[in-house]
Amino acid sequence: MRASALGRLAAITLISLLTACGDGSGSSEPAFLVEASTLAYSKKIEFTISGSSLAQVGKVTIGKCSGLTLEASSSPARKVISCTVSGTGATQVDLKDSADRVLFSQPFAIPEPRVSFSTNLGNLLVELNPTAAPLTVNNFLAYVNSGFYTNTLIHRVLAGSVAQGGWLTSAPAEQTGLRDPIALESTNGLSNVRGAIGMARTAEPNSATSQFFFNLADNLWLNYVSETRPGYAVFGKVLQGLDVMDAIGAVQTGVRYGLSDFPLTDVVILKVEQVQ
């Protein structure tokens, strides 16, 4: 998909007219006009609602959006509703009257979240899957949007297997701002295949925090097998930059800072940011 197409998808704008449910005056003014800011998973967005029949609206419901709030900038001629996107895919805005009857309903689509990795070896674009791995994606995006991964190192590379990061800064030192561990989501149907991104953990299944890994090859042995072999949770996949992933996986490694399989030349994650 071209970058321009991605931009259009990430900046979906809802501009919808309803003329069939007018106020009976015969006016050509639209009954409702609904506009939305950029739709992005986990981000706060605003819906602006206006139109000749706005006085009839007593309630607004928005699917896959939590914490609906009527903003102070609202007025009798214009309602501004904010919420945080909590799902992806098809959903809708419903405008209802005081008797809870739907006056207007507008479907729209929320794209899957995507993050870009900028490294000193090149860039990767990764698409996350919050439907299959909601706890893992929300945890990862919290780190991303706090800037946690800025100037951190890929600290472990097993050639032909995995490349792991999300722990040490380029000092090196342990990165600060670690969040609480999350529950393991390894039974979500996603597999540790080439290009998949998963969460690293200790021997304790529910111990993942900030560390992640890229699967350099099909690592089906990392999938869930049983309670005694719980595997590792996959939560997304590389869409662009597999050549960069391969370059990371091809670096020479050895013992550095007391750690084995450490790249002998620093592989630096310069920045990770949510781009959709």
How would you explain this protein's 3D organization?
There is one protein chain. This protein is mainly beta. The protein has helices spanning 3-10, 134-146, 242-249, and strands at 16-17, 33-36, 44-50, 59-62, 65-70, 78-85, 89-96, 102-110, 114-119, 122-128, 152-158, 162-169, 196-199, 212-215, 234-240, 253-256, 259-263, 268-274. It folds into two domains: 3-110, Sandwich (Immunoglobulin-like), CATH 2.60.40; 114-274, Beta Barrel (Cyclophilin), CATH 2.40.100.10. The chain is built from three helices and 18 strands. A hairpin with a 3-residue loop joins strand 11 and strand 12.
Question: Helix share of residues?
Answer: 10-25%
Radius of gyration over all CA atoms, rounded: 23 Å
Whole-number count of domains: 2
Question: Which structural class fits the helix and strand makeup?
Answer: mainly beta
CATH topology (fold) name of the largest domain: Cyclophilin
Major sheet attributes: 8 strands, antiparallel, barrel
Name the beta content range. Answer: 35-45%
Class of the largest domain in CATH? Mainly Beta
What topology does this entry show?
Blueprint lengths: L2 H8 L5 E2 L15 E4 L7 E7 L8 E4 L2 E6 L7 E8 L3 E8 L5 E9 L3 E6 L2 E7 L5 H13 L5 E7 L3 E8 L26 E4 L12 E4 L18 E7 L1 H8 L3 E4 L2 E5 L4 E7 L2
Antiparallel strand pairs: 1-2, 2-3, 3-6, 4-7, 5-6, 7-8, 9-10, 9-18, 10-15, 11-12, 11-18, 12-14, 13-14, 13-15, 16-17
